[in-house]
Amino acid sequence: MTSAQVEKERGGEEAAHGGEGYQRGLGARQIQMIAIGGAIGTGLFLGAGKGISKAGPSLILAYAVAGFVIFLIMRALGELLMYRPVSGSFSEYAREFIGPFAGFVTGWTYWLFWVVTGITEVTAAAAYMTYWFDIPQWVSALIFTVVLYGANLISVKLFGELEFWFSMVKVTAIIGMILICVGVLTVGFSDAGDTASMAHLWNEGGFFPHGVGNTLMTLQMVMFAFLAVELVGVTAGESKDPKTVLPRAINTVPWRIAVFYVGALIMILSVVPWTNFHAGASPFVVAFEKMGLPAGAGIVNFVVLTAALSSCNSGMYSTGRMLRDLALNGQGPRFFTRLTRSGTPLIGTTFSAALMLVGVWINYQWPGKAFDYVVSFATISGMWAWIVILVCQIRYRAKSDRGELPKSEFRAPGAPVASWFALAFIGMVIVLMGIDKDARVSLYCAPLWALVLGVAYVVLKRRDPEAAAFNRR
Fold this sequence. Notes:
By secondary structure, this protein is mainly alpha-helical. 70% of the residues lie in helices and 0% in strands. It has helices at 3-13, 28-38, 42-45, 48-55, 59-83, 90-97, 100-129, 137-154, 156-186, 200-203, 211-217, 219-225, 242-251, 253-271, 283-290, 296-328, 346-365, 369-401, 417-435, 441-463.
């Protein structure tokens, strides 16, 4: 694609309805909260307990280092988005800078990631409902799926509103916890007031109580907690003012991670010694209980319910867009291109929602190892998107520096060295996954999925050679 072609395509995409038929219905307020909410999920509210038990206070450092890498990934994505803001995002960039097969693999892999994530999250949301109501889980799962499906079909603006309020709940909960902990440390109220101290961060066996090796092993679960932060890239084609809104949202990544992960953990581990936390229990619930605030369990249950619904809502949104992008480029069934009058992908969203319901049913009927393997694959497929973003940014930067493509208005700092560093870090995390027997199963599934996609692409090329072109729209 030449510089002139890029500028022509840009002009079309900046029209009121976007260059792909979508409506630009997401405003600055919604994009900001989607970006914030994407970095906060059940990985923090529930999963951090396991990390604390394995690494102690040094988990704070793991989140800080991983958060820095996430910022590099997001800045690389931002450079690509300002070059060409499209709804297909990673799949489109993979198709342009790596090749048609890479776009095919990225689109279908990211679609599968969100379908599997949607299945697990709606199942989890149904389980959280049993905390208050004695109703069958399948009833809650069905209601949640239908409601979120309907909201996604009505308009992209309604999707944005739901994500705004879902994210607001999560942000409010974390800020509230931090303020309570500050009060315990400074004023000394609650049952933990007499023992709370910043010294807990180094007096209970040191900052690395189980050694540096165990801290490194937590990096995989830490990185998994950040999955979905890249979702803001999928919204590019439907943002009202992408050139202004998206850079602002991406530049908030450092303070989001500093406050919601690093800050929250520093406060919690200062009020309650790390030895009180264990896998399977939310550190927020444990902290509330140790402070003599038992109502905290109900509050956290509501927050994790919100986080699960937020993730499922994001899945509904992104799967429809990915399927439509693949179809527009001849790499998926043509009927996925159909839009509703409000500009939402009807068939793609419906197909994905139906699979989510089938997956929930399978999970209830046969909750065995096979389903666990598919779920674990979601983690490695999510990281694939990050790898593609970095590789594409490196190749785009080289072309733009040579004058073959227009330079982005939002260049990634330190690139391409910073992007190579981020790739190396992700490579290290994948190696750590191979060492950890509990996480190793994720790597077993990847070759099988790659084989399926490889065979599918060969069949596709034989039936439609034009699908191997960069862009057939």
